[in-house]
């Protein structure tokens, strides 16, 4: 819920009904919403609250309990590793949103986790993308 409220706030503050700005701010808004929803899951009451956590810490999420690391990594990893990725333009657009969401969540890890190690760099995302595109083209 906080994730979606962040999108609404970003739209009201920065887009102001300008369709071109809306396109440009989508990545930023996904990044920002990723930060906010992760802070909420971590129990932060304010965005500038000084918190500390472990990537192995179990979090109570909307779904099943999972570690902080799983919360940050799993969604984008599952989509990238699909055999039909990117199946269509819609899947590709969703993936870009998930990448920005991942970067937002990982920025919280970089600032507050005591044991964070970067798993998905831009280079590894690019490599996974190219590997799956090649696999898809070879099946045609």
Tell me the fraction of residues in β-strands, as a range.
under 5%
- Mean residue pLDDT: 77
Shape: globular
Name the strands of the widest sheet in spatial order: 1-2
Low-confidence stretches: none
Number of domains: 1
The assigned structural class equals mainly alpha
Order of SSEs, N→C? HHEEHHH
Number of helices: 5
Radius of gyration: 16 Å
Largest sheet: 2 strands, antiparallel
How far the N terminus sits from the C terminus, by CA atoms, comes to 41 Å
Helix content: 55-70%
Number of DSSP strand runs: 2
Structure commentary:
Strands 1-2 form a two-stranded antiparallel ribbon. With 140 residues, it is an all-alpha fold. The chain has one domain. The protein has helices at 2-15, 19-41, 68-80, 89-112, 122-138, and strands at 58-59, 66-67. The chain is 65% helix and 3% strand.
